[in-house]
Every structure is written in structure tokens, then in C-alpha cells.
Amino acid sequence: MYRMLMITAALTLLPALASPNAIANEPTLAAANELAPADEIVRYRLTDWKAKHIHDAKKADTIAKTLKKLGCEVTLSEHNGHMDVKYRCPEWHELKLNSHDDAHKWERWLKEFHFTTEHKH
User: Fold this and answer.
1) What is the residue extent of each domain of the chain?
2) What are the boundaries of the signal sequence (predicted)?
3) Residue 12: its pLDDT value, please?
């Protein structure tokens, strides 16, 4: 419960990093806040480490920041002309969202990053 509150607070207080169609179709963090209806919740976790190979340093940094704000463990490393963003989130976390569409955008984005998700209506 404490983790969920901390993530909700962080997502509420921090500015959105990207538009819905920007960086890897990342939805905006502004879509998640503590005033959202309780029936639009996306739960997520990723128990094993995954990596994305990104050739744009700014894009890699933005993805890493987003994953950190979602409560994930993240490492960034640069080699062979690209950045590796390694991440995992072994515990379940929740996002409360403003709308059903926002919930689906986040669920889609999380699945693209190999997370296990649950969307509760």
C-alpha cells in the first residue's frame, strides 16, 4: 500500500515526460494521479531483468526516468554505439488512471516492455 501511495504521489508531482505517441508510444505520466477513479487501475510487475537497446541517448534517458518513476530498478550502460536500459520491477505496483483509454495506453506500453499487467474495471 505504501509503495502504491508513493508511486501515485511521484506520478502526480512529476511532469509528464512525453506525449502519448512519443518515445516508444509512452503514455503521459500526467494520465496517472491520485484523483483518478478507483475502477481504472493497472497493476504491473516484471520479475526478470529485461533490456532495451536504444540508439538515441535522450530517448534512453527518458525511458529510464519513466521506469524509475514507476518504481522499477533501472541501470543504463553505453557500448557499441547504443544505450542499454536494463530494468525490472519484481513487486506488484499500481497506477490509478483518469480514464479507461489512459489505462489501455499504459497497459499497452507496459506490455511492450514485457511487464505482466492486470487492468481492473
Assistant:
1) 2-16+38-120
2) 1-24
3) 40
For 2-16+38-120, CATH number out of 3.30.70, 2.60.40, 3.90.1720, 3.40.50 equals 3.30.70
pTM assigned to the model: 0.72
**Type of residue found at 105:** K
The beta-strand segments (E) located in 1-121 are 41-54, 73-79, 82-96, 116-120
Any residues with CB less than 8 A from the CB of 55 and at least 6 apart, and which?
81, 82, 83
Q: In angstroms, rounded to a whole number, what is the distance separating the alpha carbons of residues 53 and 78?
A: 9
Pairing of strands 116-120, 41-54: antiparallel
- Tell me the pLDDT tens digit for each residue of 21-62: 345 566 766 555 555 445 799 999 999 999 999 999 999 999
